[in-house]
Amino acid sequence: MAFFPDIPKIPFEGPKTKNPLAFRHYNASEIVEGRTMTDWLRFSVCYWHTFRGTGSDPFGPGTLQRPWDDGSDSVENAVKRVGAAFEFIEKLGAPYYCFHDRDVAPEGANLKESNRNLDAVAKALGEEQKRTGIKLLWGTANLFSNPRFMHGAATSCNADVFAFAAAQVKKAIEITHQLGGENYVFWGGREGYMNLYNTDMKREIDHLAKFMHMAADYAQSIGFTGQFLFEPKPKEPTKHQYDYDAAACLNFLRANGLQDKVKLNIETNHATLAGHTMMHELEYARIQGALGSIDANTGDLLLGWDTDQFPTDIYLTSQVMLVILAQGGLAPGGTNFDAKVRRESFEPLDLFHAHIGGMDAFARGLKIAAAIRADGALSKFVKNRYRSYDSGIGQKIEAGNVGFVELEKYMLDKGEAAANESGRQEMLENLINDYL
Ligand code: XLS
Ligand code: NI
Ligand code: NI
User: Residue 82's closest CA among 94, 65, 99?
Assistant: First the structure.
């Protein structure tokens, strides 16, 4: 059955095309720095925004037209939706998708029924994966929508809720494994607090760590070798989320012996909500070997919440790709469009425009970043800026061969530090614009 009958497979037509349903820059098989664009970018379509988003906001109900969806919570409707989703992803030419358990299958009256629903829909997902070759980038569990999770899941004050969340994640890992998922994501959901007066922060954070260890142990016991990912977000829905930013997440992982088991899934709009740039969060994770995957989207400069818009800014995507190229790629992670069309963009066609724009912006970012690297002027500048550590006293500092006593002697003899040099920020900002 064709759900998007008027839309062909999206072709690559190059930068000159006027066809809005064609790629201008994403040329899947084009080689950049020795690898195809497909391999560098590893695009993924997210099920929740793209197939479960309705366009509702706190001021009004949904607006989005999804003719294949009868709006019911039946398994039958969920299975039909799988057909629409895979037709969309196939026509778009994205190699991956991602989901939460409750995006793909309806929650039942109890856990047993929910698991049964998930099994039924997972069967359909598996068949479509086989038919199309589309793969699962990551699975995750929705531990935030159901009212039982009002106080959090692993950090709930209610131990039964912890147990429920554990059972749910157990099943979500099994389904992810069954579908060949390459990663499994933990995003905090409601793991945080609204008010410290009613919160035992120490116990909550300890419980979260226990929960992640249990997940990793269980995954190992069933032979799931996918990468675990922790997704930072500073606030929303809670006032303070424990997975605040890359630094807070890494501190949590290290403090609890999880650093070898879990990497980070960095999302642009979460980075900016935390008061960082995306490039900062990516670079912070990368230099510590913890950059696992990205949720590609963007916020709105003037709105203070997670607007999850599709990324179109090539300045942003160039910065992202600079870090990803520096790391040598994201695999087994990828570039997941955790982004939604605006509620005014209510036609199914808008889903294509949104993803085409995002993929093209990243493909362009990839080419720009590769050009910056090939030119070498930027990296040469940075290397040169730190050259005082390549020999003499600097080399001794880095090697750990001197302490305060030796450094004092060095300076008493020398009298004054060598003159500083300009950071040339403005010149470098101009240089970057040369490549855009
Ligand atoms: C919400 C998060 C969420 C995760 C998956 O803000 O971005 O969508 O990516 O649970
Ligand atoms: Ni996300
Ligand atoms: Ni988000």
Answer: 99
Structural tokens at position 176: 């992810």
Instruction: Determine the 3-state secondary structure of 60 from DSSP.
Output: strand
What span, in angstroms and rounded, lies between the C-alpha atoms of 120 and 168? Answer: 16
pLDDT per residue as tens digits for the range 66-122: 999 999 999 999 999 999 999 999 999 999 999 999 999 999 999 999 999 999 999
In this predicted structure, the answer to whether residue 1 has a pLDDT above a threshold of 70 is: no
Token pair for residue 255?
């403090």
The 3-class SS string of 370-383 reads HHHHHHCHHHHHHH
Q: What is the chain's mean pLDDT, rounded?
A: 98
Cα–Cα distance for residue pair 96/137, rounded to 1 Å: 5
CB contact at 8 A, 310 and 355: yes
| Positive or negative: CA dihedral 367, 369, 372, 375 | negative
31-375 belongs to CATH 3.20.20.150 = yes
pLDDT in tens, 181-238: 999 999 989 999 999 999 999 999 999 999 999 999 999 999 999 999 999 999 999 9
Helix 392-399 × helix 404-414 angle, to 10°: 170
The DSSP H or E segment spanning 53 is: none
Boundaries of every domain in the chain: 31-375, 384-435
Contact (Cβ atoms closer than 8 angstroms) between residue 337 and residue 45: yes
What number is the average pLDDT over the span 35-40? 98
* Ligand 1 binding pocket mutation candidate from 138, 149, 184, 233 (most atoms within 8 A of CB): 233
402 exposed, middle or buried (CB, 10 Å; 0-12, 13-18, 19+)?
A: middle
pLDDT tens digit sequence for 237-283: 999 999 999 999 999 999 999 999 999 999 999 999 999 999 999 99
Ligand 1 atom nearest the C-alpha of 142 is 10
> How big is the CA angle at 136 (ends 134 and 138), to the nearest 5 degrees?
155
Q: Which atom of ligand 1 is nearest to the CA of 295?
A: 9
Identify the CA nearest to 37 among candidates 90, 94, 89, 85. Answer: 94
Q: Which letter does DSSP use for residue 26 in this model?
A: -
Closest approach atom of ligand 1 to CA 49: 8
Other C-beta atoms lying within 10 Å of the C-beta of residue 184: 23
> Is 39 assigned a catalytic role?
no
Q: Read off the pTM.
A: 0.97
**What average pLDDT score do residues 398-415 get?**
98
Q: Is 151 a catalytic residue?
A: no
What is the CB < 6 Å shell around ligand 1?
A: 100, 140, 185, 187, 231, 233, 267, 295, 306, 338
